[in-house]
Amino acid sequence: MINTPAPEITELSARDRILLTAHDLFYRDGIRATGVDKIIAEAGVTKVTFYRHFPSKNDLIRAFLDYRHQRWMNWFKEALARHGAQSGGGLTPLVPTLTEWFENPIYRGCAFINSVSELGTLAEVVKISKSHKQDMTEVLAELLPPSPMREQLATAVAIAVDGAIVKAQFEAGSDKAQVLTSLELLLIALAKV
User: Fold this and answer.
1) Full-prediction pTM beyond 0.70?
2) Which helix (H) or strand (E) element contains residue 144?
3) What is the pLDDT of residues 17-55, one digit of tens each?
4) Domain ranges in the chain?
5) Which CATH superfamily is domain 9-191 in?
6) CA gap 117, 111 in Å, rounded
7) Which residue of 28, 75, 99, 175 is 20 to 30 Å from 1, comparing CA positions?
8) C-alpha separations of 31 from 10, 19, 58 in Å
């Protein structure tokens, strides 16, 4: 799961401890709400060590987003495969994959949507987030049967997924299940296009 605990933090290099600590805090509490001093304290490093690896908080934000992208995309592809995804085989595995994520107790939505919401004025955050969403869309396109509209349908599905991610972020229990049911109905309708 993408939100599973990282390896024992004390076994990692100082840079990795900082990055993994920032990852967890940024995702859980938000980027603006998480100060450098809190990251330093929880990572168990000195300020000198922190700034040697990340000269500014913006450098750490970029590293966080790059790390989150790799971690999430790996999880996404693996989860789709666990649920039977095949190239051109359709979108059936998508809802159970998202269900895994949405039901995780520490689910807090998409780190990229959240980051753009918080820091949309930072061009680098927007650029990294767009790239992440494009990579997600390409994975979705690969699931769709070949057709002249494959890319357009993948974009429509990606938009629907992003909407479900945001809605699931503030829903709970049966309301969250309804989000997934609605997405599933939409995917069935798109499959007929």
Assistant:
1) yes
2) none
3) 999 999 999 999 999 999 999 999 999 999 999 999 999
4) 9-191
5) Tetracycline Repressor, domain 2 (1.10.357.10)
6) 10
7) 175
8) 23, 13, 10
